Amino acid sequence: MASQTAHKEPCQIISEYDKNMCHLADKKIMLNILEFTPIAQFSIGKNHRITQWNRACELLTGYSAKEMIGTEDQWKPFYSTKRPVLADLIVDNDFRKFQKLYKNKKSSKSKIIPMAWQSTDFFKNLGSKFRHVFFLAAPILDPKGKVLGAVETLQNITEQVQAKIDLRASEERYRTLTEQIADGVALIEDGKISFVNDACVKILGYHTSEDLLGDNLVHLVSDTYKKSFEKMCKDFETGNLSEKMLQLRCLKKDGTEFWIETHNSVIEWEGKPALLTTVRDITASKLQDMAIRKEAYYLRSQNERLRTTIKGRYSLGRLIGKSNSIQRVYDRILKAASSNANVVIYGESGTGKELVARAIHDMSDRGHGEFIAVNCGAIPENLIESEFFGHKKGAFTGAIIDKSGYLESANGGTLFLDEVGEIPLNMQVKLLRAVEDGGFTPIGSTRIKKANIRIVAATHRDLKNRVTSGLMREDFFYRIHIIPIHIPPLRERKDDLPLLVYHFLQTLSENGKTAFIPEKVLKAMQEYDWPGNVRELQNAIHRYITFNTMDLLEITQPQPNDSFRFNSDHFPKTTEKIDLRIAIGNYEKELVLKILEKNQGNRTQAAKALGIERRSLQRKLKRYHIM
């Protein structure tokens, strides 16, 4: 109870303990109440002798009830010489003397307790301590209203007074500090400005702080942004302030429009919540940003116009072709590059899905960031979470260092998910949360990280069927399936075959000499369906450059079991001199190329088919200059 009382105003406390006491006729009851109240109180009779000196009064003054009751020494704890205290003046009803003795002591008649007087005073040694004390004295009346004596209440208000002194000092220090910084500082209470520094006055185009004090800050905001500012004020009033920073267009005193950035914090000021705002003039940077945005819009518009002329071009990025079907792909790439939406690329193996993904990345606003390519089908299920989200050292056996995952590596760039349909369902949930800005947590960590990424996915499967069959979550599908791009297989764009052949002959030829393919061979290639698509064509051209021959029978009549067949035309006739090492090398190179083609470029599967380690295959590829 005492701790609750300490937080109340003195007059409130007195009203709770004394208001009814002034009208008690039963003196004994009154004295008992005085004894046990937590507020320091004493009472005197008509003869000015002390009749009660309660325990709280003993603690405050250092004088015991035993030595005070029955005496007229109520002045002793407070003054060095005898003089009337408030209770004495109440008994004598001498208000003039009260005004004289308590001049400049915040003395007055009480507005709460009838016939009571109040005052404050400071004592250097009261109960062996310096104290600020609030006094209130009221008469004790009989039922007929006759004065029987007086009761005086004492409250130690030292902490309250000191708090006010400290607050004033703090305000002065704060003002001194705020005047030294370039940013404007304003304090808003009940929607009105109660404090503003000189920098803020200058930023807002006024002459003195008096021009702004008491004004509603919303009056300074232009009509376009008033709703945003009013919402912030409303959120502040309801305790739901979430926007710590706002950019607003405001009006100076002369009507000039300018831009400010405000950073807002809720603080406690004089026992009530207030809004502390720092103000910065960002007009120059805002106008520059608007100019950059305008230029970016112009460039995007130009990009849209340029797409109509792409039909006259033979390439886009590393993609080659001029057929109508590939031109439609170019068109989709340009649209995707001008957007930040997620993309799914559909196409058979070997059609160039990763090239399309990289073209989108390079031509987008994310081109300066990382392009992280992930083969989702090649990651073991027990490692997939670690690969995507990373892990901390010691998170599991083998985690000897902290490792960043794909999402963190792709932050600010593009995450290319090849064979996205192979991602397990439980991982789809976690990826969906990360993509929707819910963040992710590396294994072994408790800290949530967020990554600003764009997903470009690729697959040779029908993802809608995967959803229907329960192998892909519907919400994950719709999150990534925003811009679909379908790459036609090579058999549907045969018009591009000559361009592709010429391109590969140029890029794969060695010593600066471009190889040549006879017309009849090219015609035979046109009749082939190329189930391995552009990748198969690239490998075939590579073999042709290496061996200077192409097995047309193998192209036009592929074997049902697709087994490797030895082509004796690649070697000299028996009458010629044979270098065994070269012959074996040629045979080994052709075998490696054939197995790679059979496994659609998958080096792990090719090494398994050859019965060798993957590292051994890598060395052979390097030795024979096979890409």
Account of the 3D structure:
By secondary structure, the protein is an alpha+beta fold. It folds into 4 domains: 157 residues, Beta-Lactamase (2-Layer Sandwich), CATH 3.30.450.20; 103 residues, 2-Layer Sandwich (Beta-Lactamase), CATH 3.30.450; 176 residues, P-loop containing nucleotide triphosphate hydrolases (Rossmann fold, 3-Layer(aba) Sandwich), CATH 3.40.50; 128 residues, no CATH class. The chain has 25 helices and 18 strands. The chain has a 6-stranded antiparallel beta sheet. A 5-stranded antiparallel beta sheet has the order 8-7-11-10-9, with helices on both faces. A 5-stranded parallel beta sheet has the order 15-16-17-14-18. α21 packs antiparallel against α23. The longest helix has 25 residues. The two termini are 85 Å apart.
Low-pLDDT stretches: 1-6, 305-311, 552-566
Distance between the termini: 85 Å
- The CATH architecture of the largest domain is 3-Layer(aba) Sandwich
The averaged pLDDT comes out at 79
Rg for CA atoms: 45 Å
Query: What fold name goes in the CATH topology slot of the largest domain?
Result: Rossmann fold
